[in-house]
Structures are given as C-alpha cells and as structure tokens.
Amino acid sequence: MLKDYYKNYIETGYDKKGILNHFKINAPDNFNFAYDIIDKYAELEPNARALVWTNPNGEEKSFTYADLSEYSAKAANMFLSLGVKKGDRVMLVLKRNYRFWFSLLGLEKIGAVAIPATHLLTAKDYIYRFEQAEVKHVIVTGDNAEVAENADKADKELGGVLSNKIIISGGNLPTGWKNFDVELEKQSDSLTRIEINSRDMMLLYFTSGTTGYPKMVTHNHRYSLAHAQTAFWLNMQYGGLHLTVADTGWAKAVWGKMYGQLLFGAAVFVYDYDRFNPAEMLGVISKYKVTSFCAPPTMYRFFIQEDVKNYDLSALKYSCTAGEALNPEVFERWRDATGLQMMEGFGQTETVSIIANLPGMEPNPGSMGKPVPFYNADIVDENGESVQAGEVGEIVIKAEFGDDGLFGGYHKNKELTDSVWHDGVYHTGDTAWKDEDGYYWYVGRNDDIIKSSGYRIGPFEIESVLITHPLVLECAVTGAPDPVRGQVVKATIVLVKGAEGSPELVKELQKHVIENTAPYKYPRIIEFAEELPKTISGKIRRAQIRQEDNQ
After folding, report:
1. Please, which residues have CB within 8 angstroms of residue 287's CB and are 6 or more apart in sequence?
2. 8 A C-beta contact, residue 364 and residue 328
3. 219 burial via Cβ count (<10 Å: 0-12, 13-18, 19+)
4. Are the C-beta atoms of residues 505 and 471 closer than 8 Å to each other?
5. What gap in Å lies between CA 334 and CA 342, rounded to an integer?
6. Which residues are CB-contacts of 159 (< 8 A; sequence separation ≥ 6)?
7. Is 379 helix (H, G, I), strand (E, B) or coil?
8. Which of 51, 161, 296, 451 could in theory staple to 63 by disulfide, Cβ–Cβ 3.0 to 4.6 A?
C-alpha cells in the first residue's frame, strides 16, 4: 500500500527509544521520482489527497495523486511539443502557484533541468541566470512577465535566445508568450516512460553568499529520495497535511513542499500569499486542519505576538523550524501557547537535512539536534581536527563527492567546488559547538563571526539574550567596523508594538546582555528599525546590514 511503499527504496532502523538510527537508499540507476513515486501512488491509491492549494482571495484547489500523475504527464507532453529536450534548462518563477508541481514533475519525466527562482529577481538577475545556466525556456506567473520580457530582450543582444516563454496569467497574453493552461489542455495524459539516469542533473539552484555572484548548486534525481531523511525530521505521516511556508523559488520548498511529503503519502498544503500576515497564516492552519508545520523562527516570533489560543490548532500535532537559529525564548513561548515543542533542523541548499531533532528525541531549546544517521557530520577546527565539547568549529560532512543527497558541485566552477569539498570532506561554512550529550548548537556563518579585540563572537547567543527582553520583537547582531577593536558588536532591533527607542532603552538593553552573557559580548552599538531586511523565506539578511555599515 501507499503508506509503506517508500520502503522499496529506503532502508531504516530504530533504537530502543524508537529514534531513527539507520538510513540507506536503495534505488536503481533509472530511478525517477515522477514515474516511480507519483505515477505508482496514482495506481495504488488514486484518490489519496496529494496537494491542497488556497490563496487569500479564498480560491481553493485540491489534487489527488492521480491528478498529479495526469497533470505531470500533460506537462511533460506540453514541454516535448514545444521542443524542450532532455538536459534543457527551464527556469520556473512560480511563487506558490500549484502549476509549479505540474511543471517540476513534468520536467523530471522528460529529463530536463528545472531552475526554481524567486519572483524578486530584477532584469539583471534574470540575464545573469539566463547566461550562466544557459536557460532555454522560462515559465513565470503573470506579474513577473514584464521583467522577464525585458531580460529576454537584453539577453538577445548578448547572443542568448529563449526558445519558449510561458506565462500563467488570467489576463491578456503578451506578444511572443504562450499560455500555460491553454497549452496544457491540448495535451494527452498518456506518456511512455523516458529513461533517465538517476545521477543526471535534475535541479539547479542559484544560491548567494555574502560576496560575489550567486553560485549554481546542482542536484541529481537521487536527491528526491534523500529527502526521506528530511521527511523523518518533519515527522511526515501517511494521510497528514503538511505546510512549509517557503516560496518555490528556494530549495527549502522541495524540502517541505514536495519530495519527503509525497514520498511518505502525506499531502502538501500550499498557502499562496504575497505578504506574510501572522493572523491570516494561523487562520488557514486552523481552517484546513494542518497537521504539521515548518517555518523560520522569525515567523514563530510573529505568531507569538498574536493570541494563538484564539485559533483552533487542535489538528496541529508537530511543529518544526529551520532557516536560522532558534532562540530558546521563542521555543518556550510557542510551547506554552500550543503545547508543541519546536523541532529544529539544519541543512543547506547544497544538502538535505544533516542535523536534526528527530521524532522521539527530547529537544534542547536552541539546539539544532544531532547529526542524522545517513551523514557523518562533525565539528572541526581550522586544521580539520575534531573539536572538544564546548569548542566552536566548522560543521563538515565526511563524504565522497557524489554521495546521495549532497550537491553535485557548483556548476561551471570546479575551483569553488574543490575549495569546499576535498579530501573526503564537504565544508559547510557554518559554525557550531556541541555539548556533552552530542547536541549541536549553531553559532553562525563563518562570515557572521564577529572578531573584536581578539575575541570571536557568534551573533546567535547575543540575539537569544536580547529576544528575552519584553520590548524586543526581533533583532539581528552583526559586526560593525571599529578603528580600535577591528569590529564591535552591533544590534539592530525591532521593538514590539507601542515601544519606542531611546538612549535610556539602549543602556537598559546593553545591561540586559551584560547580565545574561559574557560582558565582552554586549552590543556597543544599538540601532532601532521598523523592520529587518529578510529574504522572501523569512531569513534575516545580516549581510545587507554589514554592507550598509561598510558604505
């Protein structure tokens, strides 16, 4: 039956407490998620719910596994009819539109490479991606057509050519564009399987660091199965309804909106919103009886400002968080409001979940958890030696290039790939420390570490202290340039409604930090802001604050 079918590809084991301690992928060379999971599930339980979509206007769509199988076959035939070939790069700028699922699965069926991207891109961003990834086809929502069209015109002057421009829109069709729904309905839902090697490229993500141009992260078809590990962390249940808030332009979307959920026979819930409103989000979680939920800590902080007990969250049985470090204060207040513990996890665009609080574990508030059984993660010093408990070092994964679930390198940049993955070790660039019980505690990106008067200071500990102050809604700690100390600790703070910044409050907050952590870590600079710069997925952009300070 559908409930246990994933066991044909995933081998697992558990300890005496029922905690996952063994994980292995067993998949043939021609494994393809769209055929071997979606189409198979459509045979086993065609009426099982797979995808529930809604938006703030009250529009609703619900799709079964049979629907996903049918529409992905139609999408595959549509792409083939338009000349899309195996290996072609197809850019998807679809926000949270349900056609994303049709498109991604359809592209997998023909062996084309999907490039999900955020709708916040400028024309310059499009051009860079068109050129670097050799994009041949683009599919966008209607409100992104103009910027994509301008990029296409500019790109043609550089010699680039888009073969197809496809739009999802209820309005007039721009010249030179094809309407997704019209083209889709022309197609048959019958498709003869196209054989794809499971190690062929399936996905390409552009991911930005603090400096330089975005890197191109590649994943093959086996990446989809490795997300069973992510599904265990999110506690996916057959028949459940899971909401991860990420936009489809980010890798976190396939973590929580695609592979692990559908692999386990759960349904994906999609709330197609443009601007996050905590009351609205709590309302849809209640209305649609979402059973499991994952969001960055920032969103939980805003939930806490609402009166959570006014919403019926009785169907919600599990809550997780990722994307940035979790403040213990947020953990405690969410548990007080809902009775649920937040199970934190850690991974990157380059990986699946590699550290997590797995079901059955007792989470330590603020800890990412422990390395998952599939990956040999460690914390090492600058010489690559394992550090002792309590010492800060870099998180690494001891793995050979090409291991399942890990990226296939930075596309067209062997030098950068070799700089982070060599001698059987992938260097994540993230720092942490572990306690005596083996729990990992996040410190920050290597770039986030503040070096002040010889001290190495991680921002998260200071943020965790500041967030316990009753007037602080959220904050970001960064290093600001200083001619004497090199850098000093700076805190950019958003206050709760009704509170106002003042010199007196600055001194009060500095004293609060001094009393609750090492005195040398207190923020010598405090600035109050209306909001913090964030990515669309809700992560605080500390790099932007640093860049503005350095101007």
Report:
1. none
2. no
3. buried
4. yes
5. 8
6. none
7. strand
8. 51
- What is the token pair recorded at 117? 């991207």
Phi, psi of 123 (to 5 degrees): -60, -40
CA distance 237 to 249: 25
468 DSSP 8-state letter: T
Q: What pLDDT, on the 0 to 100 scale, is given for residue 210?
A: 45
pLDDT class of 211 with cuts at 50, 70, 90: very low
Round to whole Å and give the CA distance between 350 and 251. 9
CA distance 322 to 311: 23
Distance in angstroms (rounded) separating the CA atoms of residues 195 and 111? 8
Assess contact for 386 and 398: CB atoms under 8 A: no
- The CA-CA-CA angle for residues 294, 376, 328, to 5°, reads 40
Give the model confidence (pLDDT) of 101-114 as tens digits. 999 999 999 999 99
Instruction: Please give the Cα distance from 149 to 143 (Å, whole number).
Output: 11
Cβ(424)–Cβ(399) below 8 Å: yes
Question: For residue 437, with 0-12 CB atoms within 10 Å meaning exposed, 13-18 middle and 19 or more buried, which class applies?
Answer: exposed
* Residue 513 amino acid letter: V
> Which structure tokens are listed for 227?
């997300």
pLDDT tens digits, residue range 241-251? Answer: 999 998 999 89
DSSP state of 544: H
Read off the DSSP letter of residue 517.
S
In terms of residues, how long is the chain? 551
**Model confidence, pTM:** 0.87
Give every strand in the sheet of 135-141, ordered side by side: 178-179, 164-168, 135-141, 89-93, 113-116, 201-207, 215-220
**8 A C-beta contact, residue 374 and residue 380:** no
pLDDT for position 209: 52
> With DSSP H G I counted as helix, E B as strand and the rest as coil, what are the percentages for the chain, rounded to 5?
30, 25, 40
CB 475 within 8 A of CB 541: no
Count of other CB atoms within 10 angstroms of residue 305: 13
Helix (H, G, I), strand (E, B), or coil: what is residue 164? strand
| Interacting residues of 65 by C-beta distance below 8 A, sequence separation 6+ | 2, 38, 41, 42, 45, 46, 48, 50, 262
Give me the helix-helix angle, 297-305 and 328-338, nearest 10°.
50
Q: In the numeric block, which tokens belong to residue 103?
A: 């498109």
- Three-class SS state of 255: helix
The string of DSSP letters for 440-457 reads EEEEEEGGG-EEETTEEE
Cβ neighbour number for residue 49 with a 10 Å cutoff: 19
Nearby residues of 121 by Cβ (< 8 Å), 6 or more positions away: 93, 129, 144, 147
Helix (H) or strand (E) holding 281: helix 278-287
C-alpha to C-alpha distance for 221 and 241, rounded to whole angstroms? 25
Helix (H, G, I), strand (E, B) or coil at 83: coil
Q: Which helix (H) or strand (E) holds 123?
A: helix 123-133
Nearest to 440 by CA among 406, 476, 390, 399: 390
Looking at residue 246, what DSSP letter applies? -
